[in-house]
Amino acid sequence: MAGVRSRNFEGWPLFANSFRPFFLLAAIQAGLSILAWLPMFYGELSVSSAFAPRDWHVHEMLYGFLPAVITGFLFTAIPNWTGRLPIQGTSLGALLAVWIAGRVAVTLSADIGWAFALAVDAAFLTLVVAAATREIIAGGNWRNLPVVVLVLVLLAGNVAFHLEAHYAGAADVGIRVGIGVVVVMISLIGGRIIPSFTRNWLVKFNPGRLPVPFGRFDGVVIGCSAIAIIAWIVAPLSTVTGAVMALVGVLHLVRLARWAGDRTFGERLLLILHVGYVFVPLGFLLHAFAVFGALPPSAGIHAWMAGAAGTMTLAVMTRASLGHTGQALTASPATQAIYAAIIVAALARVAAVVWPAHSDALLHLAACGWIVAFLGFAIAFGPLLAGSRRRALAIMGVPVPAR
After folding, report:
1. Are the CB atoms for 176 and 164 separated by under 8 Å?
2. Is the pTM of this model over 0.85?
3. DSSP result, 290-323
4. CA 303, 304, 305, 307: dihedral to nearest 10 degrees?
5. 99-131 tens-digit pLDDT
6. Which residues contact 305 (CB under 8 A, 6 or more apart)?
7. Which of 148, 266, 269, 334 has the lowest tally of Cβ within 10 angstroms?
8. What is the per-residue pLDDT for 83?
């Protein structure tokens, strides 16, 4: 019912569904932020932010870019969960404006004041939590309320980030809280959609061994992941934390092996979900190595953020953009190029930590890959999200049907 009513939306198609503006602007912001970050990292550019350059970079990835993608996904999924109307039109435009205001406020916080910037920035996730809670409760869909709880924790982490940056000079706990929420969210949502999408495709195109559906084992892995993340937030370099991280990393590898990802090479739109999820256990294992002195602590962070978060967001954004606009669920040449770019970016970013002697070259490679991936998404999928199907198909290299 919600989908039918959404299709009857008479305004600009960009505001017909939440995924359209949030995926598009999140991709643009992700690409432009990294385009600005390297000059900032080398002291060639500065912004009027109350945050130190590193904290501005981390914040805009963790609490700017990712919440936009999460919101686009969440408010597209909730109508399917509840049968209620989607947020669209003026309400969606207002929510988007609050997100944009937060990006401006954080970047200009040295001029407007850190407390005011905090209030503006925190307003977005506050509205998201309130609206999502209202919709889920009204629709009686209690099963998905934990996702909203995770967004609420993300909001708390954002507030903590601002407070730490002001009173301590740099964010610390707020960063780990945000990263932890993102990892748990990928574990929860990815654990549902990856085996489900894989099963649907295999039954139709490659009969044989099927993925194991979400079950008790998955619940145990997510629970153990949450415990490991909490231990990491509280005591990141504790021996106990390292041991738990290693165990959870192995559990995630076992979980991933149960999803028959090795049978999805025929469809890159599906394969990328499995590849993206690989970075979840990799992050846990790299953290375990860091605890025992084998690697710098940031190796695991970049596996999670550049790898899991970067790859999984693009995987979900491309698939949802195609599926919810009525396109064939297959990866075009342009889409596959986007996937290749983000994988290169993720591997190069982790490698820059592991091999510091080559860090400059690897950082530039990682930045270029990230920028190509996200601005490439904006270029390839932007016309589709804005309502120009023919132009989008032409850009992506898909044959355009004759009028």
Report:
1. no
2. yes
3. HHTTSS-THHHHHIIIIIIIHHHHHHHHHHHHHH
4. 50
5. 999 999 999 999 999 999 999 999 999 999 999
6. 61, 62, 179, 182
7. 266
8. 86
